[in-house]
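Risk register update: the risk of archive-format incompatibility is retired. Evidence:
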Amino acid sequence: MSLKTSCTAAMLLASSTSLFAAVPPSQQVVLLVEENHSYSSVINNPAMPYFNSLAKNYALLTNYYANVHGSLPNYLEMTTGQIETMNDAYTGTISADNVVRELLLMGKTWKSYAESLPSPGYLGLYSGLYVKRHNPLAYFTDVADSSVERHNLVPFTDFSRDLAHGTLPNFSFIAPNLNHDAHNGTLAEADTWLKRNIAPLLNNAEFKKDGILIIVFDESARSDKARGGGHVAALVIGPRVKRGYRSSNFFQHQSVLTAILDAMGTAPDPGAATTALSFNVF
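Archived output:
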């Protein structure tokens, strides 16, 4: 091999490694999902000043698309790498490999913090402003069939306590209620809720070490069917994220699962996450 060929190959390898670089190790990954709005209705919208300040200061994924329309299938894509069901009123359990199973295999901790959840371990479909379809971990047999793991499904009120006491798990899933995830409420209401509840996380000393926060909308407006579920806004936030970065790589929800498990150090990942591009924003 000539020197020129060798150098070219090295440059291509370096470029490829950068593009497909895994998310760096983290002891604290947080996923928060918002609802039913298009990229164009969120980015640069003056009704969402806090969200857009995060987009400006951290990493915005500009070419991110939901997989389908319907809440539960998108949430399951993020946590199992598969759609599993198109039925938002699904009442069964899901035994496929999933984020909880992978975390437990590695000895990692997890919790789902769901706003308006009536009690720890609640498995019902609805309760006031809480809906199970926005809390995918509650469907997994690893959780629903375990008297221990089921009690990691907790009301969101536990989040501020765990944050203050330094007892957040390795992986936190956050589900705002229907008024605060922009499903029933306005984008302005969702943004106010984000600022009130997420700013303390970003200022937390433990999170500042190596934390990663992913905020993503589950699907776009129903009129947008591009790539299946439409163009949505997605942010990656943390102390090691490139500041003010814009990634134009094509992503869908399986990359969320890839990113979470990359940060936790596991491979291969469940379902489509095995071959999904991880977030190249570090």
